[in-house]
Amino acid sequence: MRQLIRGRTLSFHADPVEVENAFTYHEDGAVLVEDGKIVATGDYATLRADGLPEIDHRPNLILPGFIDTHIHFPQVQVVASWGAQLLDWLNTYTFPEEARFSQQGHAPAMAEKFLDLLVHHGTTTAVAFCSVHPQSAEALFSAAEARNMAMIAGKVMMDRNAPEAVLDTPQQGYDDSKALIEKWHGRGRQRYAITPRFAITSTPQQMEMAGQLAREHPDCHIQTHLSENLDEIAFTLSLYPKARDYLDIYETYGLLGDKILLGHSIHLEEREIARMAETGSHPVFCPTSNLFLGSGLFDEGGLRARGIRAGIATDIGGGTSYSMLQTMNEGYKILQLRGQKLHPFAAFHWATRGNALVLGMEDRIGTLAAGTDADLVVLNSRATPAMTLRMERATTLAEELFILQIMGDDRAIAQTYVAGKPML
Ligand code: GUN
Ligand code: ZN
């Protein structure tokens, strides 16, 4: 069935940091949707037709749904855990919580809550770490498939430096990941990410198995963590004494390339930056998490200047908000501390097409281009009294977007469409 979704449409076709006219905006626009796909985006007057069903979201904005490139599904009940930096936070709060995902029924229940939270915050695709238990990934994929929501996910591989209840073995980690890939990768909108949690929790034998999976499944994504925290880096290098630096560990096992997403990537050596650029590997900026865990200030401008394309993400539950708007708000502040600027056009590009580019999926998601999947977010710039008051003085689209970026959260999400279906 064809349907016209009317509103002020905004979609990026280039990176506003790189080119002048990077987006298309229709003041009275519409997205024509059929069978979960965008047929056309343009002026309402051009797209309207007699008998064509319409939903009118005016004066709200319609953008491509947000993409979150780093989030931990089993940490929905870890968010806001007090007083620790990374390694203590993992040991005190996170590993015990993830252990609960072995319990019958827990992962399926949490998967529904997790996806509800994503769509309530306008996020239509996420790249998610599951727990070590294969049933956590199974639950997330099943729930995402039922909503026809594009998920990229993987069970974490971890075989040391954590409680027994969240450990696998090199062989079990390989076998479980392999079975999940065979069942889920490329099924509908689901995709698998090979997920060695980070070098601290994987033995060299397990890293070797992760590399083998990556060789056997070159079209799977790979996700892990890199150089988030100084104590983490020191511990990591003590576990891999032959490594030239942290990134070298992942390189040794054949994991670098444009499929890998390296969460955090804050405290990098010059050699690591050069290798990231040469291999096309992607760092992922997690602003609310980096502030909450006191991890450090991501160098967006420095990495961009080297030709590296970074993702931006919430990193729930080290992160403190599911909202990509709040993520861009805290991202703006981190870049301020770095003497860099995150313009609202750059921010909204990043959370949509930019993250899609990082995933190599811009032909499917992240824009309002014809032929792509109809994942949309509808944004209300007057969602709160404070926003309404501030909006009285906004005269440009950039100002309005910046108000959304700084003041917006789930209250600003008027609707989220996943494959053409309203989710709220
Ligand atoms: N490094 C390894 N595991 C994690 C995690 O769950 N969260 C964060 N923020 N960093 C990690
Ligand atoms: Zn993480």
UniProtKB/TrEMBL annotation:
GO MF terms held by the record: guanine deaminase activity
InterPro entries tied to this protein: Amidohydro-rel, Guanine_deaminase, Metal-dep_hydrolase_composite, Metal_Hydrolase, Metallo-dep_hydrolases, MQNX/HUTI_composite_N
Residue span, Amidohydrolase-related domain: 62-422
EC number: 3.5.4.3
Keyword Hydrolase annotated: yes
Associated pathway: Purine metabolism; guanine degradation; xanthine from guanine: step 1/1
Keywords, alphabetical: Hydrolase, Metal-binding, Zinc
Residue stretches making up the Aminodeoxyfutalosine deaminase/Imidazolonepropionase-like composite domain: 29-49
Catalyzed reactions per annotation: guanine + H2O + H(+) = xanthine + NH4(+)
CDD domains: GDEase
Top-rank EC class of the record's enzyme: hydrolase
SUPFAM superfamilies: Composite domain of metallo-dependent hydrolases, Metallo-dependent hydrolases
Cofactor info, note text: Binds 1 zinc ion per subunit.
Cofactor: Zn(2+)
Keyword Hydrolase: yes
PANTHER family given in the database record: GUANINE DEAMINASE
Role noted for this protein: Catalyzes the hydrolytic deamination of guanine, producing xanthine and ammonia.
Family: Belongs to the metallo-dependent hydrolases superfamily. ATZ/TRZ family.
Protein name as it appears in the record: Guanine deaminase
Source organism (scientific name): Paracoccus broussonetiae
Species lineage: Bacteria, Pseudomonadati, Pseudomonadota, Alphaproteobacteria, Rhodobacterales
